[in-house]
Each structure stands twice: as structure tokens, then as C-alpha cells.
Amino acid sequence: MIKTEGVICILKPPGMSSSDAVTDVRRVFDEKRVGHTGTLDPAAAGVLPICIGRATRLFDFLVDKQKEYVAEIAFGAATDTEDATGTVTASSDRIVSEEELRAVFPAFTGDIQQIPPIYSALNVGGEKLYKLARRGEITEALEEKRRTVTIYELGLIRRTGENRFLIRIVCSKGTYIRTLCKDLGEAVGVPSHMAFLLRTRSGAFTLDNCFSIAELWELKEAGTLSSAVIPMDRAIEHVEKLEISGVSKKNENLLIHGASIKCSDPREDIPLRVYLFGEFLGIGEVHNGELRITVWLGDEARQIKGMKISGRVIHHNHIGRTIGFPTANLGGYDRRQLPNEGVYATIAELDGQKWPGVTSIGRNPTVNGTELTVETHIIDYDGDCYGKPMTVIFLKKLRGMKKFASLDELKAQISRDVEAAAESLRSMT
Questions:
Q1: For residue 12, which of 202, 150, 168 has the smallest C-alpha distance?
Q2: CATH number of 305-428
């Protein structure tokens, strides 16, 4: 199973929704954690950056960037959808000249006001606006949804036919190009609509970075799929870089495990790309002279290894014992110190000895559990540990949480987990 993480740029064709593209990327990469950085109109084509794996944590650092489009505006007809897929609502035979169109561009450059089209993905009362429009519940644009967007550049590329022009737009997130084309028509006094739209850039991602879904499948078959993925630190090169070196091993471990360390860098309270001896760790911030990693994107195994939690063994539902894998359930621990949900190779410190183990952190989905539990199967331990203090030291993540169809399937997986944990422990000694 491919576990590549990063950003993939999809060359979305007209007719494909952004959510459809996300679904296709999930299938190609066998990864559930996939999300786009901003919807691209289904009728439009072009650049659609999609985050894979932990790169989904970068959404806030990617979503607000500039967009660049090439659009064809058609004068002579307005439609209810503001594009070529809609029903004509107004028409005119008047011909618009290049000079006329250029003359109104200045009024649409800079900060402008837009009312979202009724056939848009905007949420109204928990439902998409276009769904309400299709049911006839909304027939006019909602004035109260008016908002400010920024057009940084607006220019004419060329005439493509009678009353049809290709224009280039550089704009802010949330700009409706369909609405811009409609408003340009109103400005020259001739009804218009958007005939075609191509997004040529989204932030730093351009058409040169893009792959079609078919090309991704071809790369996967050839075993070169990772070559299409932009690494996480490269995807956020617009974020300033902070290189850390010359720190003690203690401070290195503190930083890796989420604690703050002293830092004299003057760039306080802004996101920084943090590297430790050249290794990318993630996004961090300096506050009051101390640096802390706020979004960990480095080697997960490095962060997990050495993490520990302490508490006492408590009684629970004893399901593990019924399937041949009794577990010591930990209580009284500091939940802030827990790794993410999943199954880990661990060492259990109990009765003054160290025992190899497999620790599950989760809600026991196979038995419809709802409470978060920390359960350790202590390999080769055969004593009574209830009420005793225990420390669990995490060494490696084996897998994520999963719901199994039966207890027999769960039992078989736990058996594999025990083998994997034992092998991991042997390789570390």
C-alpha cells in the first residue's frame, strides 16, 4: 500500500467535480486522508491541488493563495447559471468591441463586490445553494451574501469570435469568474455569460505541475507514482524557513516531542518551516523567545519513539482475554501525552521489569466501543497486574485503527500485530 504524503496537482477536466477528483485520488493512492485546497467549478478545467496524507494539515497554509484563470466571455446572451450550461434569460444582437471591453476593466480591478451565483456551492442553512436553486426554492441572487474579492490583474488576451473574448484574471480566493463575466456584460450594456474557464494557477501550483487521473494510474502501474507528488515542505515554500542546528540532544528531543525550546530568532508569532539539522519537522512558531512545532510533519516514527505515558492498570470489559490476547488497560494517565489513535509496538514497564507489548489507542470499533481506551497486550506476561502502576513506552506505529467484521478477524490481526511488534523490538536491540 502506497503511503506517499504531499500535494498532487490534478488537471481537472470540465464536467468533473472537485469531490470526484478527491475520490479518484483516494483510489489511486489507497489513502483516506485526501482533500482539495478549494473547489474548482465543475464546468471549469485546470489546476486543482489535492493534499494527501498528513499534507491535509497544510490546508490553512494553501487555501488563501492567489488564483489565475483564462476565461472566455460570450456577449449576446445571459443565463441563469452565468455559464454555458444554463438557460438563456436575456439576449441582444449588439456587438461589443475590444475597446469597449477594455474600457470597463479598470472598474473591475482591485477590491470589488460580488454576489455569489445561485448555482454555486455556497452553503445556505446547511445546504448547497445550487440544490436550492434546482428545486426552485431560490430564484434570485442573495444580496445578503454579497462579499468583497480582489482582482489583481484583468486583461484581454484576444478575440475568439464574434462577441467572444479570451480574458486573463489573477484574483483572490473566493472570486466567482462566472459572476465577473456577467458583471462585465452589464457594464457594457450587453448580456453575457462565461463560455469556458481554465484555472492556470492556484498559489504556487501551475499547469506544469499537473497530472490527469489517467496519467496517475499509468505512473502507479509503472511504479513511479511518487514522482508526481510534491513534498510537503516544497508545497509551502512561501512560508519562511527556520533552520535549527547546534542544539543539545535534550532540546532536540523536546522539540520533536512537542515541547518548546529557547530560540533567538526575531520572527515571532508567524508560521515558519522548521528544519533541524536539515531535516524538515513541520510548521513552528516562535513566541516569547521559545520555539514550538505546531504542525508536526516530520518522520512520525522519530516523534513516536520514546514517547511514554504512566498510570495504573484498571478493569475494563475483558474482551481481550476472551479472544486469547488479554490486555492491561491503563487509567490515570495524562491524555495530553497520548499519541494519535492507532496500534503501536511498545515496552511496558511493570513490576520493575520491561516487557514487550502491543498497545492499542482507540475506541474499539469492532465491538462498537465509544470510550477512548489505552490497552496493552504484554507479550509473555502471565501475572495479575490490576491496580499496579505501569508506564508504556512507544517505539513504533504499526497501523491505524480499523473496524473488523468479526472477533475472529480482530484476533487474526492482533496475532499479526504481535509478530510485527516482536520483529520491531528485535531490530531495535
A1: 202
A2: 2.40.30.30
pLDDT at position 146 over 90: no
Strand partners, 361: 342, 374
CATH assignment of 67-202? 3.30.2350.10
Fold (CATH) for 240-298: 2.30.130
Tell me the C-alpha distance between 40 and 203, whole Å.
14
pLDDT tens string 410-424: 889 989 999 988 887
294-311 pLDDT per residue, tens: 998 988 777 777 788 999
Winning range, highest mean pLDDT, from 126-135, 351-360, 397-406: 351-360
Task: Give 60-70 pLDDT, tens digit per residue.
Answer: 888 878 999 99
Per-residue pLDDT at 12 exceeds 90 = yes
Contacts 24+ apart (CB under 8 A), 26-34: 28/213, 28/216, 28/217, 28/220, 28/225, 29/2, 29/4, 29/225, 30/1, 30/2, 31/2, 31/3, 31/4
Please, which residues have CB within 8 angstroms of residue 189's CB and are 6 or more apart in sequence?
A: 94
| Strand partners of residue 282 | 274, 296
Domains 6-65+205-234 and 67-202 agree in fold:
yes
SS3 for 283?
strand
Residues 6+ apart with CB under 8 A from 406: 366
Question: Is-contact 126 132, C-beta < 8 A?
Answer: no
CATH code of domain 6-65+205-234: 3.30.2350.10
Rounded to 5 degrees, φ, ψ at 215 are -65, -35
- The average pLDDT across 111-130 equals 72
d(CA 411, CA 408): 5
Cα 133 to Cα 116: distance, rounded to the nearest angstrom: 12
CA-to-CA distance for 111 and 150, rounded, in angstroms?
4
Q: Catalytic residue numbers?
A: 41
Q: Are strands 77-79 and 88-91 parallel, antiparallel or unpaired?
A: antiparallel
Average pLDDT, the chain: 88
